[in-house]
């Protein structure tokens, strides 16, 4: 019975992980929306406190490359010695990070 329970839990975790990988919006909502907002505008309490970038802005989008976005998601962002965005390298796979970096581009209005 224990083995069945462990197997079911393991399978559920694998399925949940694959849902995130297949769904950029789910990855965004689970990891980014708290600060950057559901729409990327950073119009959230946390986004305002951290002065998060408004990723809907064409000007902001033009200010960084895809490689910059990937690095920021993976390694985090520090300004003046203060962490303004936490690193996600320990939480997300490289594929998830690339997926999020690509998703950021879809937020531009």
* Largest pleated sheet: 2 strands, antiparallel
Identify the strand order in the major beta sheet: 1-2
Helix segment tally: 7
**Portion in strands:** 5-15%
Amino-to-carboxy terminus distance? 53 Å
Low-confidence stretches: none
Helicity, as a percent range:
55-70%
> How large is the radius of gyration?
16 Å
Structural class: mainly alpha
Number of strands: 2
pLDDT averaged over residues: 88
SSE sequence, one letter per element: HHHHHHEEH
Overall form? globular
Sum this structure up briefly:
This protein is mainly α. The chain has 7 helices and 2 strands; from the N terminus they run H-H-H-H-H-H-E-E-H.
Task: Please give the structural blueprint.
Elements (H helix, E strand, L loop, with lengths): L1 H21 L1 H8 L1 H4 L8 H6 L7 H5 L3 H10 L1 E3 L2 E4 L8 H12 L4
Antiparallel strand pairs: 1-2
Helix pairs in contact: 1-2, 2-7, 6-7
């Amino acid at each position: 019975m224990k083995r069945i329970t462990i197997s079911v839990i393991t399978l559920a975790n694998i399925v949940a992980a694959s849902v995130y990988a297949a769904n950029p919006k789910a990855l965004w909502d689970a990891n980014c929306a708290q600060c950057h907002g559901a729409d990327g505008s950073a119009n959230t309490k946390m986004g305002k406190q951290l002065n998060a970038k408004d990723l809907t802005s064409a000007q902001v989008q033009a200010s960084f490359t895809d490689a910059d976005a990937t690095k920021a998601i993976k390694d985090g962002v520090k300004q003046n010695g203060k962490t303004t965005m936490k690193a996600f390298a320990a939480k997300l796979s490289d594929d998830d990070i690339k997926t999020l970096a690509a998703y950021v581009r879809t937020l531009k209005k």
